[in-house]
Amino acid sequence: MIKKLHQMGVKSGHMYTAGLASIGLAFASWILSKKAESAGLDRADRWGIFVGEWAPTFFAMGVALRMEETHRDLEEPSVGMFEQESTRSRSHAGV
């Protein structure tokens, strides 16, 4: 699932942002439920906890995506400084 998310372009930063937004949304839903509904504090607590439970999942997925990003970066062949120099010297040698 993580590999598929990575292929779809989802980055670890997106998941970290979703985790932080979830924390803010949990607090907002608790406040709104407490003030707007007449069901009382128990119901507000349940709403806040329900939404707040999403945050660890988003953060865990962010860590998994970070590992996938790092793993992919290590697998891709990178052009080093010395390879670039030899390519440049060959292209300028014919000039």
TrEMBL record:
**Highest taxon listed in the record's lineage:** Bacteria
| Keywords from the named record | Membrane, Transmembrane, Transmembrane helix
Q: Does the keyword Membrane apply?
A: yes
Region (Disordered) residue spans: 75-95
Q: Which residues cross the membrane?
A: 12-32, 47-65
Can you say what this protein is called? DUF2637 domain-containing protein
* Species this chain originates from: Nonomuraea composti
The record lists the lineage as: Bacteria, Bacillati, Actinomycetota, Actinomycetes, Streptosporangiales
